[in-house]
Amino acid sequence: MFYRTTGPLLLLVIANAASFQLHVPRTAHNPTTLLESSTNSVGPKSFIAESRSPNRNINTKLYSSNEKTNDSLPPTSSTESLNETFGGYTVKQRLREEVESPFRKVRLIFFLGSFGSALTALYFSAISVLKANMYTDASVPMDQALESCAINVAAAVVCGALAYRDYNIGQANLARIAKGGKLAKLAVTRANLPASSSAGRASLADFRRVSRVVIAAGGKNYINQMARSLNADQLTDENNIPQRLAAEDVIVVPVLLEGGGSKVGDTRTFWRETVPREGTDRNFDLDRANEILAFPNGNMDWFEYLESEVETAKKQGFDVVEKGITITVKKNGRILRRATGQPQWENFIGAMEVLDSSKFGMPGDSEKYGGP
With bands split at pLDDT 50, 70 and 90, how would you rate the model's confidence at 134? Predict the structure, then answer.
């Protein structure tokens, strides 16, 4: 009887010890849906992505250029096995999740083992209750049998809940990793090169360690307003925002949303059709910001990636077509923040080096930033 009642509890203690002692902490830097709220009423309002992992670390990371190069190599048995999909995720994605949480399977084995042990003990405890109810001279008194049942039920519920929670965290991490792969593979064409030129085509993975990427998606008015803010003198002095963004290694990717946000349109053509407003946009030149611009290539892929972002913003009450959304990707490939509204270029330029921390977090940049 002692084994029946205490066995599940011992396994539960061991499982919890494995959960807390074997857990490898993530880095303290957790900016992904660090969706910052602006104190300026006219600035962009932040929205929080609802599809976040329970451990609050849903940073989206781009694949390195080495991975992109490997994808272009002739398929081998090893690469084919890594790209094999089961359960909706590739072997490579599952291996990456296991690297990020190396003891998740150990914890699941402990939790599920404890759950099974509790159910087994509950079976025998229930038999003891039945015997105590039928026979007055049962070997186990009714009060002890009921106490054993209560303990085993509690152990089964706790162990089952912990196993279910850990499983859901793993699935959320897999979804984040898969979405990061989609982000890395999104294709663009540079504005300062012909659209038909192969040299002007790139994926967002190619900007890793080189540039910060600002994805700004919205309707026609949103795209027109952004084009004027980058290519016209709207204040008393000359507009030098493109040059300052280039100095901060920023690439801006405008994305035209059509059909109420249900598809991505031809952004490059519509951008070139922007006209200045009389009396407001002085010295308007659509080629002024070409150095920092890139346009989406492969509208369906872009929509598939942005669909969840658009839906999240809509659920939180934001008009995505009119106000637009911005997604800022750091040099290390992780998403810094999501926000609504037009990009506030002045605030963006002033704070980017601190927010991105490339002086401190990008090994190998000593020649540019100084230091060891």
Answer: confident
